[in-house]
Amino acid sequence: MAFIEFQDVSGSFKAGIEDIGTGNVDLAFEGVEKEIVEWCNEQIKLFRDKIDANKSRATGNLQQSLVVAPIKRFGKDYAVEIEAPAYWKLLEYGQKGTQESSKAPNSPFTVKEYPRLEDMVKWVQFKALTSGKKDVYSFASRVRRSIYKRGTYAHPFVQPTLTENRLNDLTQRVAEMTAQAFTAVLLPK
């Protein structure tokens, strides 16, 4: 989902620091990784809050499936990923319909087939949009035709919350943790 990469977190430090993470010097970065995971969990909460604020919660599956993937470390670089089902992009950008694209004119996605009726029925029931069983199937069929023809609106939750300020916050937190680790290790004898 969101892929965040930290490049050369030790680049602003003095001589000898460039060896950390290359095998020449072995430091434990558990504190840094813990800080990154904590930040990612805060970001996931922001995603979930925005999904709720958009009223785009269909079943709660998307919100519950947002998880932090294990952090990968490549020398001095970190790779962080927040995983989610592939359909997060459809919610984020919306979809153009087959007959018009006014709902999501800038979306890279176009509806290619009718949504599954079973999925539409679950959605209608979850949203409590009808009262009787016959109404549920009838309404779900109309919604599915509308989605096919007109597409879906975008309900962004990543772009509004994964901002430059949030990324700067993460960078600052990692830099502070790294600086503390370096300071602890590099103090004069």
Number of strands: 6
**Rg, Cα atoms, Å:** 23 Å
The helix content is 40-55%
Shape: elongated
The multimeric state of the shown protein is: single chain
Order of helices and strands, N to C?
EHHEEEHEHHEH
Q: What kind of sheet is the major sheet?
A: 4 strands, antiparallel
Polypeptide structure, described:
Helix 1 runs antiparallel to helix 6 and helix 4 crosses helix 5. The protein has helices at 30-53, 61-65, 88-93, 117-127, 133-150, 164-186; strands at 2-6, 67-68, 72-74, 77-83, 95-96, 151-152. The radius of gyration is 23 Å and the shape is elongated. Residues 1-28 and 183-189 have low confidence and may be disordered. The protein is built from 6 helices and 6 strands; from the N terminus they run E-H-H-E-E-E-H-E-H-H-E-H. The chain has 189 residues and is an alpha+beta fold.
